[in-house]
Amino acid sequence: MASTTAPVSATRAVLRTEARLFAREPAALFWVMVSPTVLLVILGLVPSMREASPDLGGRRVIDLYVPVAVLFALIMAGLQAMPPVLAGYRERGILRRMSATPVRPAALLTAQLVLHAGAALVSALLVIVVGRAAFGVALPGNLLGYAAALLLATGGALALGAAVCALSRTQKVATAVGTAVFFPTMFTAGVWVPVQAMPDTLRRIVEFAPYGAASRALDEAARGGWPSAVAVAVMVFWAVVLTAVAVRRFRWE
Amino acid sequence: MIEVRDLRKAYGERKAVDGVSFSVDEGEIFGILGPNGAGKTTTVECVAGLRTADSGVVRVAGLDPVAEHDRVTRLLGVQLQQSELQAKLTVGEALELYASFYERPADRHALAARLGLEAHLGVRFGKLSGGQKQRLFIALALIGDPRAVVLDELTTGLDPRARRDTWDLVESIRADGVTVLLVTHVMEEAQRLCDRIAVIDRGRVTALDTPAGLIGRTATARVISFAADSPLETAELRALPGAADVVARDGRTVVTGTDATVDAFVSLLARRAVTARGLRITDTTLDDAYLDLTS
């Protein structure tokens, strides 16, 4: 009698297949992996962005935009690229077809989460390297703190995307909801005005949003400290709530 | 091999399946025939363990497809209606991926060759024709080397040529000893392929028999026809035992009825010493039998 678990190689095969498919989506690859760096470069080419500002404690606007571009990569991966893929897999019966095999369709969703997380992190690394090489933006002062904040932010970003997908019945709705949520997240991530450059009251409110808290945590680690407990608590809170929503509300068909 | 007993499944108020029972023997091609919305797909989804029945018993090789889903997926290959693959996945990659799900998969190169897919291994799913997609789905249903397969509306949307090729394929699957549960609403397909057929209408089994048996049990199983100028009166034809109807069509007189009608008709010719010119006695089609059984 066959054993009751699928071969471990099946999970790897699903991941490898999804990675191939991911590589065949040039638009998604561009938006997730390249566009954050392009955003940084365009802003960096504006001379005033590279001038130290007393309002920012002697830092330059471009210094603040490196974490912003990092968060932009997370938004693109979690909110723009991933939800339509997951919703499409559900809508077109791809998850259902896999339900009739010894491999659970959750393997497909896991592969998508891993790939989008990986793409976002590579993109973040590219932003940091280009920021350092092209505009002399200092590397994060507390690398460990920065990495921890980045991983936590990535988890929250994917949880948000998964929750959008879970709450949307169709691929069209998932894309529409993703876009509707996109603008507030862009704002709270500081894409238009970096969170650190916002008026104090606005900044304090924004820092309770998932991307606002992530922005604060990354900024604190970039300056050499540890992410503050409040920022970490807010990020953990959102990651847990959004994951719970995604898990409880996700429908397989 | 597959047993379904008093299966019931409702979606809200609507009873999709309302007490369906049948059993499929090993090595059999068993057809589920019925109009759209009759409950065919829900029934086979319960067999595949993709839906949980409200009540009743479903067994595949003695296993519960829901509680023992993992083990059933290793024995039962499935081709589902309205289920696709990733658009940019190639045929070769799909076969490789699905083969990796099973401990002892079928040889995927041999399978691709048998299904006429070797020339399309590098083609993406989204670029395949309807017939090629169906052949790929059959290949994926067979790739785990299953003991039974469920094929749901296999030939829908195929041209006549592809349809016939697919039928040959189903027969060759059975020749390998695989039990086939075939869902269809195409009469010709059921008549050609199935050893036995369950006719399902409004969630119930209205008849379960061989194709010939289904035809034989209708009130209009036999069709007698001959040239209209033969010296036989409509009234005496109507009086034949079991005669269901007498009509004139295309210059011929057509009498429908049972075996008893045919016997009595032959006696009538002998007694009257007349000839019915151009006489033809045929079985009714499964089409007519089906309409009779589902109306």
Structure commentary:
The complex is a heterodimer of chains A (253) and B (295). Chain A is mainly α and 253 residues long. Chain A has one domain. Chain A has helices at 8-23, 26-44, 61-91, 94-99, 106-135, 143-167, 171-188, 200-206, 210-222, 229-249. Chain A is elongated and about 65 Å long. The mean pLDDT of chain A is 91. Chain B is an alpha/beta fold and 295 residues long. Chain B has two domains: 2-209, P-loop containing nucleotide triphosphate hydrolases (Rossmann fold), CATH 3.40.50; 216-294, Alpha-Beta Plaits (2-Layer Sandwich). Chain B contains eleven helices and 13 strands. In chain B, 44% of the residues are buried. The interface between A and B is medium-sized, with 27 and 28 residues. Chain A: It is a multi-pass membrane protein. Chain A: Pfam families: ABC2_membrane (PF01061). Chain A: Residues 27-253 form the ABC transmembrane type-2 domain.
Quick one: which chains have the greatest interface? A-B, 27 and 28 residues
Which shape of chain B, going by the Cα principal axes? Answer: elongated
Biggest sheet details of chain A: none
First-to-last CA distance of chain A: 31 Å
Order of helices and strands of chain A: HHHHHHHHHH
CATH architecture annotation name of the largest domain in chain B: 3-Layer(aba) Sandwich
Radius of gyration of chain B: 23 Å
Largest sheet of chain B: 6 strands, mixed
Task: Provide the CATH superfamily of the largest domain in chain B.
Answer: P-loop containing nucleotide triphosphate hydrolases
Quaternary structure of the protein = heterodimer
Gyration radius of chain A, rounded? 19 Å
Name of the CATH class of the largest domain in chain B: Alpha Beta
What percent of residues of chain A are in strands? under 5%
